[in-house]
C-alpha cells in the first residue's frame, strides 16, 4: 500500500460536480452588499473592509473558460520516505477528465486518470492498479469534500471551496484580499459531517495565493499555496503549487509547472491483464 500513497497524492493534485455559477457560489444577491469604492482610498497594511465586494466575487467565482490544457511538471512528494523527483505530463479536459503520466529517471512509473465518476491508476513498478471513487483521496488529504471539479480547481489555482458574503469576512490590505470564515463551515457527506475554519488569501489582481482549512475538532489541516502566476493564452495559471497535509501523519506535494499547452492530445489508458488490483480500505 505504501507505493500507492505518493501516486495517489499526485493524482489528487492533478485533477480538481459541475462548475457552480457565480450566483450559486455567492449566497444572496451581490448587488445587495455593494458599496461604491472611493478611488482615492489607499489600502493600509492593516486589514480593512472591502467596499466593492461585487468586483471581488465576480473575479474569484467566475468559472475558468478553457477546453483542454496540457501541463509539463516537476513533482516532488515528501512523505518521510525517499521519493525521487518525478516528471509529469498532465492533461485536463474541462469537466471531463484529468490524465497523467509519471516518469522517474526517464522510465514510466505510473499512469492515472480521474473523471467525475472516480479515479483509476496503475503502478508499473509493482504491476498493480486501483479503480476507486474519491473517498480515499479525501482520507489522504484529511478532508471530506473533494470531488472531481474541486480537484480540477485545485490544480488550476481556482477557489475550490464554497464562499459566501454571509459566512465569510472579506478584508483588504496593501498585499491583497483576505477571506476568513466567521462561522465554522459544515461540510456534510454520506460518511460524516466535518467543520472547518477557512482562510483564503488573494493577490491585488485576484490571483489565489493560499487556502487553509483547519478541522476544528481535530489536528487535521490542509494548506494549498500558489505562486509565480503568469498568463498563458489569455488564462492566468500558477507555475508553483504546494499542498501541505497535516494530521497524525504529515506530507507535502510540490508541483513546478514548466510548460502549458492548450492543444488536444490522446490520453490512452488501459491496464495490462497481468496487473493485480489493489483494494482500497
TrEMBL record:
<feature type="compositionally biased region" description="Basic and acidic residues">
    <location>
        <begin position="38"/>
        <end position="48"/>
    </location>
</feature>
<keyword id="KW-0732">Signal</keyword>
<feature type="region of interest" description="Disordered">
    <location>
        <begin position="22"/>
        <end position="48"/>
    </location>
</feature>
<protein>
    <recommendedName>
        <fullName>DUF4292 domain-containing protein</fullName>
    </recommendedName>
</protein>
<dbReference type="Pfam" id="PF14125">
    <property type="entry name" value="DUF4292"/>
</dbReference>
<dbReference type="InterPro" id="IPR025634">
    <property type="entry name" value="DUF4292"/>
</dbReference>
<feature type="signal peptide">
    <location>
        <begin position="1"/>
        <end position="22"/>
    </location>
</feature>
<feature type="compositionally biased region" description="Polar residues">
    <location>
        <begin position="22"/>
        <end position="34"/>
    </location>
</feature>
